[in-house]
Each structure stands twice: as C-alpha cells, then as structure tokens.
Predict the 3D structure of the following.
Amino acid sequence: MRLTQFSDYAVRVVLYLATHADRLCSIHEIAQAYGISQNHLMKVVSDLAGAEYIHSLRGRGGGIRLARPAAEINIGQLLRHTEGQIDLVGCGSCILAPACGMTCALREAVGQFFLALDRYSLADIIAKGRPAQLRQILTVQ
C-alpha cells in the first residue's frame, strides 16, 4: 500500500510540530526543513487545522502548533482522515465487484493496515525513533 503525498506531508507536519512543541512554527520553516513546496504544505496545514489536529494563529507573531498533545494524536485516525476512502485497485468501478471475493479481501487488508496504525500515537512514533536526532534533523539553520 502506498500513501498519498498529502498524507506524507500531513505526517511530516505533525512530526515537526511535535518535535517543536515549545513554540509556534511557520509553514515556511517546515517547508524549508523538509525541502518541500510551501504551497503544498499550506493546503495540508489548512486541512489539519480544519480537522483540529493543529491550531493556526494568524497575523504577526502567528504560526501553527499541535491542537493537542502528541500522545493524543492517533496515527491511524490521522491517516484515515488524510487518505479518505481507499480503493486499492479500483474495485469500485470494476464490473466484477458485486461478485468478486477480491473486493472483500482488499477491504479487509486495508482495514488491517489501519488497525495496526491505530496502535500508535504521534508520541509513540517519535519515541520509537531517536527523538533527539529527529529534533536535530528538523532544526532549520
């Protein structure tokens, strides 16, 4: 299974914000840290703010931060939100779908994928890695 670029960027944004929880961050600095498009990140940040994963403060001195502690952000739920309905091979438009067992098998596989991710919070993901090294990598010079 392959996640969309939108989901990839959403995870990157929340990882960045979790490793910089002590302050407000800007979209510009996140884009710079990852070497990715600021325009793409603006769409992701807008979506994450609308879904209440992050808070966005406008104006001078504004920025973004997590809307709740990293331990309360479930990775499975986040990816369900960003991915939407997943149809791995286009079963929804296939003429065999009503009679084919593959549709059920693929739906089950996607469900198991998300169930595995449901076991992890954003804090767990950070702790499983090397938190100090992650913060160092994500520090914009």
Notes: The chain has a mean pLDDT of 91. Residues 5-137 form a domain with the Arc Repressor Mutant, subunit A fold (CATH 1.10.10.10). Strands lie at 54-57, 63-66.
